[in-house]
Automatic annotation (TrEMBL):
<dbReference type="GO" id="GO:0002939">
    <property type="term" value="P:tRNA N1-guanine methylation"/>
</dbReference>
<dbReference type="InterPro" id="IPR028564">
    <property type="entry name" value="MT_TRM10-typ"/>
</dbReference>
<dbReference type="InterPro" id="IPR016653">
    <property type="entry name" value="TRM10/TRM10A"/>
</dbReference>
<dbReference type="GO" id="GO:0052905">
    <property type="term" value="F:tRNA (guanosine(9)-N1)-methyltransferase activity"/>
</dbReference>
<feature type="domain" description="SAM-dependent MTase TRM10-type">
    <location>
        <begin position="78"/>
        <end position="268"/>
    </location>
</feature>
<dbReference type="GO" id="GO:0005654">
    <property type="term" value="C:nucleoplasm"/>
</dbReference>
<dbReference type="GO" id="GO:0000049">
    <property type="term" value="F:tRNA binding"/>
</dbReference>
<feature type="compositionally biased region" description="Basic residues">
    <location>
        <begin position="48"/>
        <end position="62"/>
    </location>
</feature>
<feature type="compositionally biased region" description="Acidic residues">
    <location>
        <begin position="279"/>
        <end position="298"/>
    </location>
</feature>
<feature type="compositionally biased region" description="Low complexity">
    <location>
        <begin position="1"/>
        <end position="23"/>
    </location>
</feature>
<protein>
    <recommendedName>
        <fullName>tRNA methyltransferase 10 homolog A</fullName>
        <ecNumber>2.1.1.221</ecNumber>
    </recommendedName>
</protein>
<feature type="region of interest" description="Disordered">
    <location>
        <begin position="1"/>
        <end position="85"/>
    </location>
</feature>
<comment type="function">
    <text>S-adenosyl-L-methionine-dependent guanine N(1)-methyltransferase that catalyzes the formation of N(1)-methylguanine at position 9 (m1G9) in tRNAs. Probably not able to catalyze formation of N(1)-methyladenine at position 9 (m1A9) in tRNAs.</text>
</comment>
<keyword id="KW-0949">S-adenosyl-L-methionine</keyword>
<feature type="active site" description="Proton acceptor">
    <location>
        <position position="199"/>
    </location>
</feature>
<keyword id="KW-0808">Transferase</keyword>
<keyword id="KW-0489">Methyltransferase</keyword>
Amino acid sequence: MADVSGEAAASAGQSGTGDSASGNQTLSKRQMKKLLKQQKWEEERELRKQKRKERKQQRKQQRQNTQQENRGDGQSARKRPRREVAPSALRLVVDCSFDDLMLIKDVRKLHKQIQRCYAENRRALHPVQLYLTSLGGQLKQSMDEKDKGWVNWKDITIKEEHYSKVVAKDELVYLTSDSPNVLGELDQKKAYVIGGLVDHNHHKGITYERAKELGIEHAQLPLSSFVKMNSRKVLAVNHVFEIILAYLEKGSWQEAFFTVLPQRKGAVAVSQDQTNPQENDDNEEEESSSDSDLDAAEQTEIRD
Ligand SMILES: C[S@@+](CC[C@H](N)C(=O)[O-])C[C@H]1O[C@@H](n2cnc3c(N)ncnc32)[C@H](O)[C@@H]1O
């Protein structure tokens, strides 16, 4: 302390705080104390700066941790850690060749269903090889207008060509509710085609006819074997897609159907069904294309 006082006194003399006439007037005790305090304050400036910096960094780190935790909570059900993901070799093709059969409002619904397929596949445990074929016309226009980010979609094959030009014929299986064949196991070597169509049953049987014309395999989902529903067995594109994803994850059609089918389909397990509800052919086609089907987070993710 003695040294410091000496320095302080000297510096006080230099800085002119002493008597200007004599230049060496001794400082009062109070002045000396004040000076020492000031000097200490100056000396510790760097230290304080350093501590402020550290506190700021700590707060930043804390904020980041909280954000990460929140994101983790919010997404845990939707997004899995990447390490669990095991992509499937199975190909799922959305056949968009029915564009000119749809009114623009139905094209918009189909667009949302396709967005949903893409988003679900991105977060699936066993994502499939997703294809969009015959993309053009009103659907492409809707995508360009409403969701420009589609050009950056990952892990998807998008073609203007018909699916029969993209996949070998003997590998194709058209999924259609009108087929007399019922799907059993999924064959990883096959490409399963879903009709990209929202038609309110105006074009009943069209995909079945197309598959027969082309001479490719076809099959319906084994809905009747596992669930009884109080509406028709014609499902929306994204529901068929999600059922396949759920089947790949759970290995059970029944679980897959119950995970995906909306409540309003009134699905009950076949074994539990006592009432045997009638299938009602007048029921509206399952569209699943209301805005609520794509929440904000999904839409953001799609645009990413
Ligand atoms: C809304 S439906 C289109 C219905 C259309 N009238 C047709 O003939 O396929 C959309 C697509 O989902 C698939 N799909 C719907 N329900 C199905 C089921 N029960 N089994 C297999 N595929 C189904 C078909 O590929 C169908 O083309």
